Amino acid sequence: MGNFTFEEINLLCIYNPGTRKGAIEALSEMRGYLEPDETELLALTDSTLAKLRAMTDADFDALELYPDFDK
After folding, report:
1. Distances from the Cα of 49 to the Cαs of 5, 16, 29, in angstroms?
2. Considering the entire predicted model, what is its pTM?
């Protein structure tokens, strides 16, 4: 699967409308608003997008992006 870092998972939790395609679209849109000096966030966004594009929808659906508060 994607082997997402902790930071990438956090970014996905913020910009995830529920589907892999939607997450790619949301992150791509957000990326367009970044300033040139936001190099760390730019790199994080790019690495997250690369991993999302390389995975399948089924792999994305298997990610645990929401905490289970019942446990």
Report:
1. 13, 12, 11
2. 0.88
